Amino acid sequence: MSSVDVSTGVSADVLVEVTDLTVGFGSLRAVDGLSFTLEKGAALGLVGESGSGKSTVASALLGLHRGTGADVGGSVRVAGIDVQEASDADLGRLRGGKAAMVFQDPLSSLDPYYAIGDQIAEVYRVHARVSRRAARARAVDVLDRVGIPDALRRSRSRPHEFSGGMRQRALIAMALACEPELLIADEPTTALDVTVQAQILDLLHTLREETGLGLLLVTHDVGVAAESVDEILVMRHGRAVEHGPVGTVLGAPAETYTQDLLGAVPRVDARRVRSEGSSGSSPEASSAAPEVVLEATGLRREFGRGKRAFAAVDDVSLTVHRGETLGIVGESGSGKTTLGRMLVGLLKPTAGEIKPGGGVRPDVQMVFQDPVSSLNPRRSVGESIADPLRARGERDEGRIRARVRELLERVGLEGAHYDRYPHEFSGGQRQRVGIARALAADPRVIVCDEPVSALDVTTQAQVVALLGELQRELGLALVFVAHDLAVVRQVSDRVAVMRRGRIVEQGPADEVYDSPQDPYTKELLAAVPALDPEVAAQRRAVRRELATA
Amino acid sequence: MSGFGGFVLRRGVGTVITLLAISVIVYVVFFVTPGNVAQITCGPRCSPEQVHQVAQQLRLDDPLYLRYWHFLQGILVGQDYSTGTSVEHCSAPCLGLSYQGDQQVTQLILAKLPVSLSLVFGAMVLWLILGVGTGVLSAWRRGRFTERLLTGITLAGVATPVFVIGLVLMIVVCGQLQLLPFPQYVSLTDDPEQWAWNLLLPWLSLALIEAATFARLTRASMLETLAEDHIRTFRAYGVGERSIIGRHALRGAFAPIIALNANNVGSAVGGAVLTETLFGLPGIGQELVHAVNVVDLPVVVGMVLVIGFFVVIANAVADVLYAVADRRVVLA
Description:
The complex is a heterodimer.
Chain A: E1 14-25, E2 28-39, E3 43-47, H1 54-61, E4 71-78, E5 81-82, H2 88-98, E6 99-102, H3 116-127, H4 132-145, H5 151-154, H6 164-177, E7 182-186, H7 194-211, E8 214-219, H8 222-228, E9 231-236, E10 239-245, H9 246-251, H10 256-264, E11 292-303, E12 310-321, E13 325-330, H11 336-344, E14 351-356, E15 364-367, H12 381-391, H13 397-410, H14 427-440, E16 445-449, H15 457-474, E17 477-482, H16 485-491, E18 494-499, E19 502-508, H17 509-514, H18 519-527, H19 533-548
Parallel strand pairs in A: 3-8, 3-9, 6-7, 7-8, 13-17, 13-18, 15-16, 16-17
Antiparallel strand pairs in A: 1-2, 1-4, 4-5, 9-10, 11-12, 11-14, 18-19
Helix pairs in contact in A: 3-4, 3-6, 4-6, 6-7, 7-18, 10-15, 12-13, 12-14, 13-14, 14-15
Chain B: H1 4-32, H2 37-42, H3 48-57, H4 64-77, E1 79-82, E2 87-90, H5 105-140, H6 145-159, H7 162-176, H8 192-226, H9 229-236, H10 241-271, H11 273-278, H12 284-293, H13 297-325
Antiparallel strand pairs in B: 1-2
Helix pairs in contact in B: 1-13, 5-6, 5-8, 5-10, 5-13, 6-8, 7-8, 8-10, 10-13, 12-13
């Protein structure tokens, strides 16, 4: 990196200089007095939970708040341009020309109606006075550069014909087209599978090595930042909490908030820590073979008919024992959600059968991924929790209310919250409501489909802890479906790895994680971002090996 | 477009089934409608014998299924009709004979259809230009005075009945200013120039009202597209507002515009009765209203089938345009 002392202030090598930036939307201060600098060719990670103002900072670097009614104070200089004072024409030159942005959701970030090559060419022609033909050739060039195979032909495809990872590559190609000095990446891998995420991060890494591009990486995922940047700035409530070299901030954080944040991040290489008083899964576990509460054999589920039929789940067999957690991990499209829904009875299997162990009534309940859309916004949370009770034929209002209050308190909310509506709760609280609803029917098994993936890490940790507590007290069995390998390890006794509808590996969590047998499991584990930059470098090397092998 | 042949085939079969269903419904509705058809057809001064004769001639005493069977026969192989003194042959796609003037319905339709099509397609061109143009302008100038003004005008347009606009246009343009003679239909094949001049006011009055709906739809879908993430991408890459509006936001409005247009064109072929009546255009709509009044079943069925045909075809064309405009759509 540059040898210029940062403390001397403005130097020719400074690419971004943000001084006392404030951004307000009405009465809300999204960014509140933030200052930092980024040198040419350096990489800074803006890390924070949702609502910390990190994306707002990214937008401010390109002056995207102009004309939106937001209050922007302080100063932002990017590549020598004062973003606040610049004319519209100068700002146009900055955007894309000197600083290019890559967004979170690569599907919605490209125009669905135009070919990808045309979109890149359009952007290129805004900044370079070239013919349509030359711009189109440039588009093919950059697509090739970011690793799109057969770039000329693929440049004629529309975004929906690309996979998620290819779309993100295309967006990065668009960013590269005008040879900017700074790349602003706003959660560039959040919507992607872990193996694809690793590919995109590796691509960014290679591009930086080759072009000396400066990088501002905005992410909620500390691991992603650790993989990719030199310096980290931890944000909270629009302010900087801690700022320093990535090794220092992640290795020896000085601030309590950073420590808490890092503490909450689930680690894929750490064994499951069980809290007090539980040596196994449940008291009986140590004695005889634990009771089987749910058994599935040869499950298969097809979607579509005739030639278009495909099996989302194919020949899956599993058993769930009382008091244990079975983790089901897989990437998008692996069939894990379909499997979860079959276990609960929301979907009928095309073949195979599901037997409730011993019990006669169906006593499997579900906790859903999105705590916002899985609760009816027009009904009070109490009513939502009472639904399973009413469905079971309970008619006594007094008893229903009492039971719902008890459940609310059980999941860490207040009984008085009965009459409140979902929008009055935070994401984590809503997920607690979802758990209370699942508990209402006295289930023996709860299938949790990505229960924490929409939550911030600290909230994630709380919800996971709650599930663990409930499991111990009620002897519940949990089926924990998730894409996040680290979270699954943190909660599971046994793990099943799914790929293309099948279970490729199944076994005790520590065995699967510490000595994976299946090549796919190995690939998945190598793709998980590491918190330690050195480990990250090692994993990158492993990935290269796996890729060439 | 490998599936295009299959699409046309499926749509073709669908159209035939739809039209058959429509014709059955119209037959049944007319059969259960009270009133003595023979008396109405013969006239108020007919004697009971004459009425009886008319009833026999028109086969009004046959059971419903038999009459419908004759109707189908006429379409497929043609029919012979006795008109009292002579026998008239009506060849293959025969929709029957009008109860009123013994005219063949097929010929009646062929005479009226060009008028309706001239009116609707001419007006369509105008309403698309005016409506989409206004919509784009509103979206571009969103939040400013221009938008509020345009929104007000289009709201007024949606709320104004066609005969008010048509009458005002006629009084001002033809009466006060005497820029044009009062419209009188001239066939396109006879004199294209006179055809256009005479249809100008009908086109305008129909188009102005339709344009208001299109303007509102265009504005709404463009604003929706403008709020989407990919617009933010192009802003972040310095693409100017003109390209964003004209290239990206407008493209997003294509699909709903195509859908609405297909619907409106299809229904206006038979539904522009007010415009036709006001400007004395001898089109399908006017004829249909007349035929319903005198319970002229063959004419009503024929007209309704033609209208149904255009609605179905317009929607099939819309589906194809949809797939062309948005490659994610698969024709099925």
